[in-house]
Amino acid sequence: MLFYFKKIFGTVISFFYIFVNLNFYNSIFHEYVNDKIFHITLWLGIVEIFFWIMLFYSVFYLKDKSSNTNSKSQEEAEKKVIKDIRDLLICFAIFLVSLICINISRVILQSSPYMNDVVSSVSTYVLFVGGTRVLFIFSSIVFIFIAVSRKSVLLIIISVLNLGISVMIWLDFDANITAVMRIIIAILAIIHYIFLKNTVRYTFKENDNGKIEMESNQKLKLNKQEDKK
């Protein structure tokens, strides 16, 4: 039940992501006051962060298909699961931190011409903005490898489009084209949520020593195979 609730919530966030990007797209062709641009970019940043959190969370329900070799023991299966989760968390943490920094800089630079001039003239700010953009490109490239390992066509397309967006942001061209690309990503994400199935389940239980242990359906399958033997 909770799995389907997450799918619905992710779909709703994706629709909001389309809406805020449409507002951002329209702001490119209209002379809005700075206060309105501030609210448009602020809401874009907030919704974008929630959008990627939900999309990343859905990756945990997809099995890593990059390795065709089956685990021969429970210990080996558990190590693979833990390593996979650790790698995902590291990548997603880097991605989200860089995304937050990019959204903060977008709000400041687009809603305040004065701050735009200040950031452009102070080397420390230039390094911060440029560094976070490079970090965003790096995490976007890693996300492509994660999408490929899951063999999800929709995630692969989303990751490639996001890499294009990250490069355009690095080139200081976060405008109508990037807004359209983000809308396409949101539409693909909605389709992704519709067809998403819980292929990998992680459960946590208390062992005899009172410690919390993690089990996956891969480990549970190994238990059944050993019981049959």
UniProtKB/TrEMBL annotation:
The chain crosses the membrane at residues 7-25, 37-62, 88-105, 125-146, 153-171, 177-196. This is Transporter. The lineage of its organism: Bacteria, Fusobacteriati, Fusobacteriota, Fusobacteriia, Fusobacteriales. Keywords: Membrane, Transmembrane, Transmembrane helix. It comes from the Bacteria.
